[in-house]
Amino acid sequence: MKLYNQGATPASVTSPVSFAGLIEKIEILRSTLRWASRLDRPEIEKLLKQATTLRDEVMGLSHKERFVQAASSAEAAAGSAGESAPPQQEVERMPRERRQALMERSFIFEGTFGDNPRLLEALEIAEKAAPTDLPVLIDGESGTGKELMAKVIHANGSRTDKPFISVNCGAIPDSLLESELFGHKKGAFTGASNDRRGKFESAHTGTIFLDEIGELPLTGQVKLLRVLEAHEIQRVGSDEIISVDARIVAATNKDLRKMSEAGTFREDLFYRLSVIHVSLPALRERHDEIPLLVSYFSDEAASMLKRAPVRLTPRLRDFLLHYDYPGNIRELRNLMYRLSCLAGDTADLAQLPQDIRPRPAALAVVGSMGSAGADIAMPASLSEAKRAASDEAERAFLERGLQEVGGTVAELARRCDMNRSHLQMLLKKHGIHSKDFRASRQADGSKG
Ligand SMILES: Nc1ncnc2c1ncn2[C@@H]1O[C@H](COP(=O)(O)OP(=O)(O)O)[C@@H](O)[C@H]1O
Ligand SMILES: [Mg+2]
Q1: Backbone angles phi, psi at 293, to 5 degrees
Q2: Could you give the CA distance from residue 67 to residue 61 in angstroms, rounded to a whole number?
Q3: Helix (H, G, I), strand (E, B) or coil at 264
Q4: If you count DSSP H runs as helices and E runs as strands, how many of each does the chain have, helices first?
Q5: Which spans does this entry mark as compositional bias, Low complexity (predicted)?
Q6: pLDDT digits (tens, 9 = 90+) for 363-418
Q7: Could you tell me which residues come within 8 angstroms of residue 277 by beta carbon, excluding any fewer than 6 positions away?
Q8: What is the DSSP letter of 433?
Q9: Distance of alpha carbon 82 from alpha carbon 201, whole angstroms
Q10: Cα(437) to centroid of ligand 1, in Å?
Q11: Nearest CA among 273, 231, 250, 265 for reference residue 28
């Protein structure tokens, strides 16, 4: 597959060579030069420098291709000005068409995606990278879908029926890193009671996903670089050289370029890993995808929990659409599972985790000021504001009470020294179902 778009190729580059082929040749040249023994060192250095320049130029082409794409979608988004800008209708259709085109090309994606231009760009890059064996670096905040994207790249390539091995580089203690990645020989160190193969060997012919690559200590980086260059490994404590053919996809939530400038990440490894670079936007930068994700996860949770998809009150829906999601898609997914588990037919703000739940009184009083309460009108008078606040305080009191007694109305009535039927009436007034709190207690219990 040719990675660059012929139409966008500068006139000076007319060769139909693919990125994959070109970069591979350069890399062969670089390693040959690096290990050559019959040239004088100054000559080797000079040639190495030239090769590095050449590689950077090739990577520049890739950037240019992305720039052209980004510019055309930015143009589409900006829409109005300029002679070359497409008409408004065209502008609106473009992302939809890009999305449609991906689906028509049978692009496999195990999730959902809408028309967000930045996400579409990431998916298009992944689609082009998938059939090559080029290393891919995926960056984005935690929970933006990096691992999912790595699986998508694997699934759309020729290694799809081969292993996909995931390694969290941040979760392995330094002392075990080498053995985890490359395996060990029996007796190599205390506790090595058997021969063991490492993740690279397990990923042979398939894909190895190196998550949180920015956490890899410098010693590990050197070893990884060697594998990338030679496609060979040695188990700890063994002299035997084993060839491995694993496609590398790495992910990070750090800025590796900055890290390499600061000397904490090897620059040569960074270039090796980031031949193709995919950036996933934070969820707050693709708010337009939220409605789709809400219904996707609500269906997913419903089928897992064997229930009907949960309905959302307008104010909860409004909250979900405007919330910032520091934990990105993972947080949204967890929220939808939580709501589906805790709520009866319909979920409301009460079923949100305490730490993100908008304060009810504040919400009612300043309803029209905050986005989360945008569906609630500003009270017309002070007395109405007071009444609304008191209502909300009553509601919050009842919900907290029910939470504490695990949804047993009789127990709450006893604790508050209230008439049970009066309490029932108040619950009814607020549309609170005691059974929702029984579920809540079970769910909280099952977590620990
Ligand atoms: N576009 C999407 N559609 C559906 N689910 C998604 C999407 N993106 C991410 N997810 C889900 O969100 C969760 C977090 O994604 P993950 O790939 O683990 O993120 P990261 O590796 O960046 O922390 C996973 O459950 C993943 O399946
Ligand atoms: Mg992850």
Answers
A1: -65, -40
A2: 9
A3: coil
A4: 18, 11
A5: 72-85
A6: 554 444 444 444 445 666 787 778 878 888 888 889 888 888 988 999 999 988 88
A7: 125, 136, 137, 139
A8: -
A9: 55
A10: 29
A11: 231
Ligand nearest to the CA of 212: 2
How many angstroms separate the Cα of 122 from the Cα of each of 118, 130, 164, 433? 6, 12, 20, 44
Q: Kindly state if the Cβ of 142 falls inside 6 Å of ligand 1.
A: yes
Q: Ligand 2: distance of its center to the CA of 264 in Å?
A: 21
CA distance 112 to 7: 30
Name the pLDDT band for 78 (thresholds 50, 70, 90).
very low
| Across 206-230, average pLDDT | 93
Task: For 308-367, list the strands marked E by DSSP.
Answer: 311-312, 346-347
Ligand 1 contact via 111 beta carbon (within 6 Å)? yes
Record the tokens describing residue 227, joined without a space. 């594998």
| pLDDT score, position 58 | 66
72 residue type, one letter: S
Sequence-distant (6+) residues with CB within 8 A of 298 are 309, 310, 336, 339, 340
Secondary structure (3-state) at 369: coil
Quote the mean pLDDT of the chain.
Answer: 81
Rounded Cα distance between 13 and 11, Å, is 5
Residue 223 has pLDDT above 80, yes or no: yes
β-bridge pairing 183-184 and 346-347: unpaired
DSSP state of 56: H
Distance (Å, whole) CA 109 – CA 226? 32
Per-residue model confidence (pLDDT) at position 324:
95
Q: Ligand 1, atom 8: nearest CA belongs to which residue?
A: 145
Q: How far is CA 405 from CA 101, 284, 401, 428, in A?
A: 54, 37, 6, 18
Q: Which atom of ligand 1 is nearest to the CA of 251?
A: 21
- pLDDT tens digits, 8-46: 334 333 344 456 666 766 776 777 667 777 888 777 777
Q: Which amino acid is at 356?
A: I
- With a 6 Å cutoff on the Cβ, whether 336 touches ligand 1 is no
∠373-375-376 over CA atoms, to 5°? 70
Amino acid at 65: E
Distance CA 409, CA 424 (A): 8
pLDDT digits (tens, 9 = 90+) for 143-164: 999 999 999 999 999 999 999 9
